[in-house]
Design goal:
Radius of gyration: 24 Å
Protein name: IS3 family transposase
CATH architecture of the largest domain: 2-Layer Sandwich
Helix content: 40-55%
Number of strands: 5
Strand content: 5-15%
Low-confidence stretches: 101-106, 273-277
Mean pLDDT: 82
Organism: Streptomyces thioluteus
Order of helices and strands: HHHHHHEEEHEHHEHH
Strand order of the largest sheet: 3-2-1-4-5
Largest sheet: 5 strands, mixed
Function: Involved in the transposition of the insertion sequence.
Number of helices: 11
């Protein structure tokens, strides 16, 4: 019936509604009731789109593992009153699905139990009004025939640009320090900038903390094992893996070239265009 009403609505500028309803064998009251519900349907559609965005952020932050039950639980934990059936419908309509079993992927977050964590200065507020004031960082790894290639990056929350990154065959503290030095050398960070990460040993290291003091930046950390406390960095990894693929690279050099090309010629250029225009 809705298809008939849509047809009548589209043709009402050319023919009288009475004629269209008679030809389509539809009561005028039915058509007018459909028109009255248009605004409500549009409001529901917009609400579903907003919910789909929230679900996508949670799903990406979970490394695409969360299904309906855990997505619903996280939405409720964040104060969103939502029915699990609606979450299931929106996820199904947008092709969002969680993993039903563990993939064997290991986490790089190994906390140093002897090091006191820094306070969380972000509080899951992954926004910034000015570039160079709040950045988030994380480490990921890419499989190659020569072994893992580790990648550390720092992402500006104002522009979503990767302002510093480093790659190596290890994930010791100097990996994240080198990425930070790249951002600092390019003049991308303001004094007092908040530098946020997880509580991995690379970030609680004296080497990074000493460098942060030298540069005049403030360190911030989320909780151990909580991907949502560093969701913006997790989201970037999801985009990178989706674009360059998760295949087994023949060498670290080949993987480096793919990562460099993605960041410099695709990701940062697209983000810069978005924030310039």
């Amino acid at each position: 019936m809705s298809e008939i009403c849509r047809f009548i609505h589209a043709e009402k500028a050319n023919y009288a509604i009475t004629l269209l309803c008679r030809v389509m064998k539809t009561a005028r009251s039915t058509y007018y009731a459909w028109v009255a519900g248009t605004e409500a349907r549009e409001a529901r559609r917009q609400a579903d789109e907003a919910l789909a965005h929230e679900i996508t952020v949670i799903h990406i932050a979970s490394r695409r593992n969360y299904g309906v039950p855990r997505v619903t639980a996280e939405l409720r934990r964040q104060g969103r009153v939502v029915n699990h059936k609606r979450v299931a419908r929106v996820m199904r309509e947008h092709g969002i699905a969680g993993h039903t079993r563990r993939t064997g992927r290991r986490s790089l977050t190994k906390a140093d139990t002897k090091a006191a964590p820094s306070p969380d200065l972000i509080g899951r507020d992954f926004t910034a009004t000015r570039p160079g004031t709040k950045v988030v960082g994380d480490i990921t790894y890419i499989p190659t025939a020569e072994g893992w290639l580790y990648l550390a990056s720092w992402l500006d929350l104002a522009t979503r640009e990767i302002i510093g990154y480093s790659m190596a065959d290890h994930h010791r503290a100097e990996l994240v320090v080198d990425a930070l030095d790249m951002a600092a050398a390019l003049g991308r960070l303001e004094p007092g900038c908040v530098i946020h990460s997880d509580r991995g040993s690379e970030y609680t290291s004296g080497q990074l903390r000493g460098r942060l003091r030298e540069l005049g930046y403030r360190q911030s950390m989320g909780r151990t094992g909580s991907c949502f406390d560093n969701a913006a960095a997790e989201s970037f990894w999801a985009v990178l893996k989706e674009e360059i693929g998760t295949r087994f690279w023949p060498s670290r050099t080949a993987a480096r070239a793919a990562v460099f090309d993605f960041i410099e010629t695709f990701y940062n250029r697209r983000r810069l265009r978005k924030h310039i225009h």
